[in-house]
Amino acid sequence: MTVRSRHELSERWLRYEARNGVVKTFFNHDGDIEALSEFLFEALEMSDANASDSSQPVYRVLDSFLTTLFTQSDERLIRGFTDKLIKRARNAPLQILLANPDGEFARARTRSLGRTTDTRKELTKGLRFLLESLAGNYENLFSDPDDARDLSYEAVLDIINSRRDATRVEIRLLDMMPSGPMFIFPPVMVYGRFCAGVNSNVNPWNLLVEDKECDGKGLFGVYTKEFTYLWTNARMSASSTPSASPSLPADDGCDIALICALQTPELAKVFDVVGSEQWASYPRRWDDVTPYSIMTFRSRRGTQLRVIAAATNQMGMPTAAVLATKMILRFKPRLVAHVGIAAGLDRKKQKFGDVLAAEETVDHGAGKDDTLPRGFRPDNRSIPIDPGLKARLQRWVNSRPEVLGDVLNGWPDKPPHPALNLHLGRLASGAAVVINPKTVERVTKQSRNMLGIDMEAYGVHVACREALSPGPLFLCMKSVSDFANQRKNDRWRHYAAYTAAQVCHRFLYDEWEDLFPSAAGRTNRG
Question: Looking at the DSSP assignment, which residues form a beta bridge with residue 15?
Answer without folding.
Answer: 26
